[in-house]
């Protein structure tokens, strides 16, 4: 895991069913105060030539992408809930 504050977190899978997985989460300001956009990029490496590429593309990648999507969806909900709670606690100006 590598942090590049304030905008980037990078991950490299050290062990698993494929030779390498590189992931990157990048935050970019939207110009709307503290709100940012989150961009995800991932790279899935395969070995065993054609057989490994087929395995990676048809078996591993869909499961991996679904897991990332689910995690980001849950994070988005949690952030929205925290933001709403913060706005309720904040005194009116």
Structural key phrases:
93 residues, alpha+beta, 1 helix, 4 strands, elongated
Describe the structure.
The chain has 93 residues and is of the alpha+beta class. The protein has one helix and four strands. It has a four-stranded antiparallel β-sheet, with no helix packed on it. β2 and β3 form a beta hairpin. The longest helix has 41 residues. The protein is elongated, with a radius of gyration of 18 Å. The N and C termini lie far apart (41 Å). The mean pLDDT is 83.
Short summary:
This protein is α+β, with helices and mostly antiparallel strands and 93 residues long. It has one helix at residues 49-89; strands at 2-4, 8-12, 21-29, 36-44.
């Amino acid at each position: 895991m590598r942090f590049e504050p304030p905008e980037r977190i990078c991950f490299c899978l050290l062990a698993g069913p494929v030779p390498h997985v590189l992931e990157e989460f990048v935050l970019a300001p939207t110009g709307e105060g503290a709100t940012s956009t989150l961009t995800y990029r991932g790279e899935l490496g395969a070995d065993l030539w054609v057989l490994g590429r087929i395995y990676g593309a048809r078996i591993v990648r869909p499961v991996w992408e679904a897991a990332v999507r689910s995690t980001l969806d849950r994070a988005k909900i949690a952030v929205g809930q925290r933001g709403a709670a913060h706005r309720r606690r904040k005194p009116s100006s």
